[in-house]
Amino acid sequence: MNPSANNRSEQIEIDASAKWPVLVFFGSALLWLLLGGLMQLASSMQLHQPGFLASWPWTTHGRLAPAAQNALVYGWGMNAAFAFGLWLMARLSATTLRHGGWLFVAAIFWNVGLVLGLGGILGGYSTSFELLEMPRFVTFLLLAAYALVGVWGVTTFSIRNTENVYASQWYLFGAAFWFPWLYAVAQVMLFRAPVRGVLQPVVNAWYVHGLYNLWFVPVTLAAAYYFLPKLLGKSIKNYYLSPLAFWWLAIASAFAGGSRLIGAPVPVWIPTLGIVANMLLVVGVVVVGINLLGTLAGSYGAARSSLTLRFVLVSILGFFLAAALNLALSMRELAATVQFTVFDGLRDWVTFYACFSTAMFGAAYFILPRLTGKEWRSGALIKVHAGATTLGVILMVVGLAYAGWHQGNLLNEPTVPFRDVTNAMTFWFAYRTGVLGLLLVGHVAFLLNFIWISCPINSQGTAAASFRTPPALSLEGHA
Amino acid sequence: MKNGLALFLGVFATLALSWAGLLLTAHHQIGGLSQFKDPADETLYPQPTSGLANQGRLVYQDLGCVTCHTQQVRQHGFGNDLEEGRKWGERGSYARDYIRDKVVLIGRNRIGPDLRNVGVRIPEPEYFYKLLYAPESKFAGQTIAHGMPPYRFLFDVHAVAGRQPSTHAVNMGREGPGAGFEVVPTDRAVALVAYLQSLKDTYDYPTERDRNKPAPAAKEAGHH
User: Fold this and answer.
1) What gap in Å lies between CA B73 and CA B92, rounded to an integer?
2) Which residue intervals of B77-174 are DSSP H helices?
3) Are A116 and A137 in contact (CB under 8 A)?
4) Nearest residue on chain B to A255, judged by CA atoms?
C-alpha cells in the first residue's frame, strides 16, 4: 500500500501541474490566518478590556469575535484544506491536476465571497448562527467556488492511474462530499425554509459538529495516513483495519452533533443519541491509534528529526485529545459543570487548531519546497513557528481546561455573585490573549518563510531533489 | 476499498442517514409544536412578541449578543440554573417556549448572564439603557455589570441648548456626558430594550410541568 510507488519524474510533473493552484490557495489561507488571528487577538482582548474598540459598531465584540472565527475557519482552514487536498489527491491518484486555471476562478470566488461575508458580519448583517454568521448573499458564491474545487478533487480521483485507492483518498473523497451537503442543508433549514423553534439550534449543532468532524478531521487524517508511511519509509501498521476506522469515524461523527445540546430545551433523545455516538466513536479512534501509533512505534526518533513529522505528530495527538474532549463533554456530570465555559470552547479549538491546523503546517513544510524547487529560507523562522505552535497548544489546552473548570464551578455555585465569576475570568481571558499572541508570532514567522519560498522573482535554490537541511530541524531528504 | 462507486454510496448514505435520523426525525416530532390554550383564561401561550420586540431581536442578532449570552434555562438536576442566587428563571426552558421566536439563539457561552428571563428579573427599561450606555454605571446603588462592552453607538448624545429637550432622554448620572447634554436612545436601542424586556417565560405549561421536577428519590418511589 505504499502510496509513493510512482516514480520521481511523474511526481515532478504532478507537482508542476499543482504548483499554482496550491500556492494561490495556500497563500490566501496564510493571509486569512494572519488577519483572522489579529481579529481573534483583538476580540480576545475585549474580554478583559471591555472598552477596547467598543465605540464603533463594526468592531464591537459580538461582531468581531464571530468574524474572526469565520475568517479562521473559512479563510485559513478551508483554503489550506483545498490546497493540501488537491495536491494529495493528484499525487495519490498519480495524475496531473488538469485545467488548473479554473481553480483560480474558484479561489477568487471563495475569497471574494469571504470578504463580502465578513464585511456583512462586521457591518451588521450577521445571522448569529454559529459558523453560519455570514449573510445569505454570499452562500451562492461560496457554494459555487466550492463546487469547482470539489469537482476538481473528485475528477482527479476518478481519472486515477492507480490500481488501489489509499486511505487518504477515502478521507479526502468523503470530506469533499460531506462539506457541501452539510452547508447546503444548514442553509436551507435555517434560512431558505427555516425550521421552527428549537430545531434551529439542532440544525446548527449538526452543522458545526459536521464541519469540524466530517471536514477538518478527515483532511487531517488524510495527511496523517499519507505522511507517516511516506516519511518513516514503512507501511501503515495493520492497514487492513483502516477501512473500519474510516466508516466507524464517519458514521459516529455524523450522529454525534446532538451531544452539543446536553441540557438544552430539545427532546432528550437528541443529546442522548449524540452521547452514544461519541462513545461509539472511541472504537474508531482506537483503530486509528492502532494504525498511526503502531506505525510510529519505534520510530519516534525519526519523527523528531523531520519537521513535517513533528507537526503531524502534534496533529495526531490533537486528534486524540479532541476525541477525548468530545467524550468528556458527553458525560452529563462534567457537561453540567463546564457547559457554557471556555472548557466547552476548547473542544472545537483543539479540533481546528491542534489537530487540523498543525497538520496543514506540516504538510506545507513538505509540499512547498517540492512545488517551488526552492528551500526554506530561514531555519530560525521555522524554529520560531514550530516552537510557538507546540508551546501555544500546550499552554492553551492546559490553561483553558483549568480556567473552564474553575469558571464552571463558579457559575454553578449560586452564592457566588455573577460579577465575581467575571472578575475571576479576567486573568484567564488575558492569559488566552497572551497565548493567541504567541501563536500569531509563529504564524508571522511562517508567512515570512512562505513569501520567501513562493515569490517568483526570488530565484535562490534550484534543484528539486537536493534539500539542504537546516541544522536542528531537518527537512526530509527523499521526495 | 478500490471501488469508487461503493465509496460514494457509503459516503452519501452516512450523511443521508444522519440527516434523516437526526434532523428529519426531530422535525417530525416537534416541528409542528403549537401554542397551548390555557383552559382557565382561554389564552394561547407562548404569546406572540410585539413588532418592536421583533425589531429588537434583529438588533440582538446583528450585534452578536449570542457570543456571550445564552437563552436557555437548564432543568433541575442539571447545573444550578434555578437555585436561589443564580435564578435564571422560575423553571427550566421547554421547547414550546421557543416557537414564538422567529430566530432561536440559545447560545453556547455564559461570559455574561443568561437572558431567557431577563425581562422578568429587570422590569425597568432605564436599567437596560444604562447598561448599554455605560455598563459600569450604577442602578439603584449597584454597579450594573462588569466586563461588558459599552454600546454608546446606540445612543444620540447632543447639546440641549437651543432645542426642545427630548422626552426620551435617559439620565445617565455620573457616567453621562455632563451638563448641557442629553443622551437619547436611538430607535435601535429602543427596539433592543423592548426585545430584552419581552424575554420572559412565565407561563408554566401543565402539559410540560412534570419534565421540570427533580427525579423522585428511590426511597419515596415505593410509596406512590
Assistant:
1) 5
2) 118-121, 125-133
3) yes
4) B18
- Residue pairs between chains A and B whose CB atoms are closer than 8 Å: 228
Residue A377 clears pLDDT 90, i.e. is over it: no
The span from the CA of A136 to the CA of B91, in Å, is 35
Q: What is the pTM of this model?
A: 0.94
Best residue in A198, A409, A433 for a mutation probing chain B (most B CBs within 10 Å): A198
Residue A466 has pLDDT above 90, yes or no: no
Cα–Cα separations (whole angstroms), residue A162 to A6, A91, A93, B11:
9, 10, 6, 21
Cα torsion A172, A176, A179, A180 to 10°: value is 180
The whole-angstrom distance between residue A330's C-alpha and the CA centroid of its chain comes to: 22
Confidence check: pLDDT of B222 > 70:
no
Query: Would you say A130 and A72 are in contact if contact means Cβ atoms under 8 Å apart?
Result: no
Chain B contact probe: residue of A134, A199, A200 with most B CBs at under 10 A = A199
Are the Cβ atoms of B2 and A165 closer than 8 angstroms?
yes
A291-304 residues labelled b (16+ CB within 10 A) or e (exposed)? bbeebbeeeeeebe
Q: Which residues pair with B139 in a beta bridge?
A: B142
H helix and E strand count, chain A: 17, 0
3-42 in chain A: CB under 8 A from chain B: none
| Interface pTM, i.e. ipTM | 0.92
